[in-house]
Amino acid sequence: MGLCEEDSIHLELKDILHAAGKGYAPVVWKSYYWGSWRDRRLLLRLIELPKLGDLAGEKREKKRWHKSQGFNSGLKSVHLKNTWWNNDYGFLDANRRYDLVVSSYDVEPVGERFPLAQYLPPESFFESPKVVVSVGSKDMKVAYCDFPVIFRHSIQAITGPRADENLLRFLCVVIKSDILQYYLFHTSANWAIERDKVHFHELLSLPFFLPEDAPDPKKAQEIVDKAAHVVKDYEEKLKSESWFGQEDRRNQGAKRIRRELEPLVRDYYDIDQYELMLIEDTLQLAKESFHPKPSQSINDTPTLKETKEKECHVYAETLCEMLNHFGKGSKFKVKGEVYRGMPYSVVHVSLSDRINRTVPILESKEGLAKILQRMGHLLQQRQGHFVFCQNLKVFDGDDLYILKPMQMRFWSRTAALNDADEIAGYIIQIRRGS
Asked: Quick check: pTM over 0.70?
């Protein structure tokens, strides 16, 4: 196994102690596994929001919504109860393919399969409007159901009164949204480390707040109503058309609706363009690199694959855009270029009197060798003959040279944002005489 200098992570003891005092120390440890400094800042903002568990609890807790798993048949147990349903009652199998909405096509009569159960939620739990969630994460199934149906303990559900059906429809959209999948990836105990599984108590830790608790309650309520209306229309479509043998078409339709509703969820959580970059990079790069198959090559692993010219453009343009954003209102402007090589490339950023629209990607071996020689000379002048080069950035007057390994994890937009933060922070320290 090859390790880069950049693979080492430093945790501050004060951060862990602070998180322990707030009750989320495990999240701090986990967030360093895949997350960057920017990720941890976004996660902290989400952690401080109200939790789904504030609204949903056990029946005895008398919260607004009831949360539970389905019944457990537990045939090996001596503590069994008679089930209350008849043979015609609808049963939802956890292996069924469904998304966004549970329809009558997804259920079948339970028959005589489960005459006894070890754990059995009350009848009202199965009859109320509900959001059902499977236990996985890679293929997590989340759907709204507005009719009575029973299911086993591998499916969890949150039920509420009929008056909250629009809120529950919106919750169904939110749980599987990019934002909360990002949150679960960085905070759940198993996902991204061991198995692609999310526990029920981790679902209840998801940030979720009511419209009346939002900074702009009227706007938040409009978002909830609009999203719920789209889900309701999809419910009616499933009822009015025949979907027998059309599972692929139906699931593609659900995915399309979820994509269309993503901007509403982002607006509800006030996600800006730079936070969106973190979320997309996590889901497109980190999530898809978790648990690579033994036969999978490096170039089939998104975070480790060789960086192409287009990806160099994206990184360098994001870096320069962020640095120019920091210097807005001043004479401080930068332009960039990339000297591309293997196994390292160099990003050259320099002060300029204007902002370039595009960043040139140069395939000059001579130019790259000259810059590396210059960087080595500068380091020897400042640090001596031996230098530990982690995330190396070298200033040379009005020029900055950034040494980048040619793996995609170092060229993502998230990497560009974090590099821009580090560079800007260093410039501020220099100006203050630190």
From this structure: yes
